[in-house]
Amino acid sequence: MPPTGRLADYQPPAFLIDTVNLTVRLDGSNTSVHGHLAVRRNPDVAGRPERLLLDADAIGALSVEVDGVAQRPEREPQSVSLTAPASDAFTVDLWATLDPDSNTALSGLYRTGGVYCTQCEAEGFRRILPFLDRPDVLATYTVRIEARGDECPIILSNGNPGQLENLGDGWIARTWTDPHPKPSYLFALVGGDLDVRHDVFTTADERAIDLAIYVERGKADESAFAMEALKRSMRWDEVCFGRLYDLDVFNIVAVSDFNLGAMENKGLNIFNDKYILASPETATDEDYQRIEAIIAHEYFHNWSGNRVTCRDWFQLCLKEGLTVFRDQEYTADHYDRTIKRIDDVRTLWMHQFPEDAGPLAHPVRPAQYREINNFYTATVYEKGAEIVRMLALWLGPAAFRRAMDRYFETHDGQAVRMEEFLDAMRAEASTDDGPWPDFLGWYDQAGTPQVTVSHSAPADPGGLTLTFRQHTNPTPGQTEKKPLPIPCLFGLVGSDGQDITLDASQMRAEGGRVRATEQGTIFLLEAREGSVTIEHPAAGSALPSLFRGYSAPVGIRVEGISDDQRLQLAAADSDGFNSWSALQDVTSEALQRRYQRLMLDEPSPAETALLSALASKATSGAEHAKAQRLRALELTLPSADDLARAIGQDVDPERIYEARGALSRALCEHHADTLCAALDQVGVEDSAELTPHQAARRSFILAVLAHLLAVPDARGAALLEAAHLSSIGMTMRSKTLALMVRTGHAKADEALNAFETRFFGNPLAMDKWFALQATELGGGALLRIEQLLGHKDFSLSNPNRVRALLGAFCMQNMRGFHAADGSGYAFMADHIARIDTDNPQLAARLASAFRSWRQFDAARRSKASATLEGLAARADLSRDLSDIVARTLEPASAQTT
Length: 897
Hints:
By secondary structure, the chain is of the alpha+beta class. The protein is globular.
């Protein structure tokens, strides 16, 4: 079992490193690294240690000099120990040899497809050179790279470049200088024969920044969209956060073998190429939006993560949660804010809520960890972003901007904690708002708060009281939960469908605070129970619209509201998110009744009203182009994961799919003519345009088709085939193919073969081909997957391909992975163990699919438990995988977070 690190045990480093001079000679299995380190004792640490302990992992031959005198280091599996001179400052020189070709873990320096590449977050630099490999040791770096010019005409590192040198015998060199102190996890190096797209960005202070995106040969044209997204991101950060770029160059490199999505190394971002390369032929509408968001995310890290970094890895959310919030705001500004909010919340519900409810639950700022690689989670990223969103809501736009300016300007060049971030927020809060709320509790307490709201009106009209109660279930290591400050942005929808205007004088609160703001009325619940009373002539007959814009990451249950009233909100609520959410709530209730088999074949009056509401969305979507994306989301049923979460315990996946299919069939049986008419009106033929309008139209067509195909009706099959045959871009081609496979269309196999023939050799397109077979075949996917493992275009060594086939199966195919006979569990455990020998990080991420195993019925729980115990019993598990398996198996009472 890996040793446990604890936040409470943090100690500042006894030594600091001010400058690092690296010389890296890229020479295959004989690659060498020389590091010259300027070291000094930390004046803030008492005592004078006699030993300098450096982190080291998988380092080959090693030579060391301290102040020019050779030393024989004491080497342990994870460290190198040196004798420290008595002086306050000294130098350390280290010479190490590496074999990048054998580095299958893709951490540290490795070579993939002939390209040398690094990944140093979180603890990869120690695989390049022994070092104080921790985020609170910041140094300036000068890096000289030497390589054979025919193999590596492109040699890149952080910072600004010097002149290219010709060393003779075909060798070249270039020196890179980064003037900004940074932790070792932000070090990066790339060497290879790459194609490039160049551009220039002029900053607000009129500096010309040279931009470059490096890709595999022949793929530069596919980086055009990424370059435009980068320039949009740079301008937005200047305008919205006042952050200007600070080097002469900004480089991006895209590689195909990468464990993560991308990495924000200072001035040299390294990307998984699926988040850079895009063309209408190979990328979907969602791919384009994802590329835009990830490029923005990594660029925004230049300030929220690089210029101001985290003191220790417990504070990972300081850079990741904040930067996710920033990229969400950027994409909301560039696309549709309501649609973006719905998409982000769906992601939170799908990935973070199950994490908070299972054995892998942990606070946004964990109190301890065994393996930091396993804490790059939805809790840190997505829930962390939601906390920043609550802070921004409570402060208001102007004060939040001032707080962010204060944070960046006060802590530029520092490694800090969540407390420093919150201090900047508190400093800009209005004193009229009372004491600063305990937002730190959101970072230190795991679990999703459940908020129950009841409302009552007095006997005489003219008032309304909303009563809020919060409760958080126990999570591993945290059985006692304290109340958290929960902001509820709310409004009242009058009987005429219009919002009622409220002001502070009409409201009083208990157990919290209420105020009217430019964003709307906010009630901040601070106690376990609180209430807000509204005294307004129309309040008693109004419908409350609660948690507008999803103002807090909580579960919400509103007592005493009927399906009819929810449908009224779905039709009239001025808040686009709540309008969508109200319809989802009614649909979820109908699905749960179907799941519990409380419904007969003929819909009840309540379900009939729901079906009519859904059909009306199809009609209005056909009529109004601007609304088509929102209508598509409204027509999309809650996912299988959403329904499983609503059911809670003893979940049967087969019944979930039966319930979803039955509701779609009912909609189609009663409103097929309406659905077909909607498609006739918009047409199912594809368009080559990548405009928001055409993307919305495509999503609407696919949402309607998904319902039409729930019954064996020739019209639906014909429309699907027509849509597939007319497809021009990847969105319609891949998604209509997925519908054909899911519904057993007569021409599904023919279409699969045609797709494979067309795109064989195109990795990103083929990833989609593998993934849709892993997900859309449901319970029958396992046999196909076993066949695809032998496909000539499949490799267990490529993370993207593994995620496309095995990851899609265990994360997105509930029926297949949670098969009643346990075959899905056994299959994945076997392949996770195989992958673990070469790529522990990838294996651990796949193993996290078991996190919800206790949610299912007893028979499945028994099989999952036995499979996990078998995996845990293996003697050869990596630190990464053993940590995930152990925490997934531990009873809640035995875990601490």
